[in-house]
Amino acid sequence: MASFLPSRDSLLLAWSANFSTRITADAVALGLTAAQATAYATLQTNFETAMAAIAPGDRSKSLVATKNAARLALKTSARLLAKIIQGQASVTDAQKIELGLNVRSAPTPIPPPADAPGITILSTVGNTVKLRLFDAVDSANRGRPAGTDGASVFSFVGAAAPTEESEWNFEGVTSKTKVDVTFPEGTAPGAKV
Fold first, then answer.
1. Please, which residues bridge with residue 79 across strands?
2. Comparing C-alpha atoms, which of 99, 115, 118 is closest to residue 4?
């Protein structure tokens, strides 16, 4: 999330004046105390005074250092108060916008993939088969399909795949694209799996 605080001093001053006015007017409804609003108003005044002390063409090191210290104190306090306000369930998005804060968007869940992954057998050693899972829709994608964290791997030994979930053997969950599946010792060489 981008910072709600303007980077230029003149814009920060205007933003802060609005923020200070609004939190002073309705501190309790925003989840703040009157003391917090008053303390912020003092920081706002200090920053405004420090900005006004720097006349065009007169940028002495001490005046700039004073302004920078006032700006840092103001920004630190603004971030703290903004976090308190953002954490209040009773504060509406409209109030946050009026304060000049960012409005958090609701997360959008990513749906599960519509297609099963493709499977390639890389090697067979004894009764262990090394598989590579890949995006069956986008063959150029060597990794997991977009929006996935991993795959659940199931196996079955027999001529036809079962229709009942309980007849499959759960091999585990993997976040990798290569996975080893070890079949039972009694599995005949060349058996359909």
1. none
2. 99
7-57 tens-digit pLDDT: 999 999 999 999 999 999 999 999 999 999 999 999 999 999 999 988 777
Alpha helices in 87-179 (DSSP H): 93-99
What's the whole-model pTM score?
Answer: 0.58
At 64-115, the pLDDT tens digits run 999 999 999 999 999 999 999 999 999 999 999 999 999 988 888 888 888 8
Q: Which pLDDT score, from 0 to 100, does residue 1 have?
A: 45
Q: SS3 for 172?
A: strand
As a whole number of Å, the CA-based R_g of the chain is 31
Residue bearing tokens 């795949």: 161
Task: State the Cα–Cα distance between residues 163 and 47, nearest whole angstrom.
Answer: 71
As a whole number of angstroms, the distance between CA 180 and CA 9 comes to 59
For the chain, what's the residue count? 193
Structure-token match 């946050």, residue found: 96
- Residues with Cβ within 8 Å of 37's Cβ and at least 6 positions away in sequence, in order, are 20, 23, 24, 27
Structure tokens at 90: 């009773």
Q: What residue segments make up the domains of the chain, in order of their start?
A: 9-99, 118-182
| Alpha-carbon 31 to chain mean position | 25
- Dihedral sign for Cα 168, 174, 180, 185, please: negative
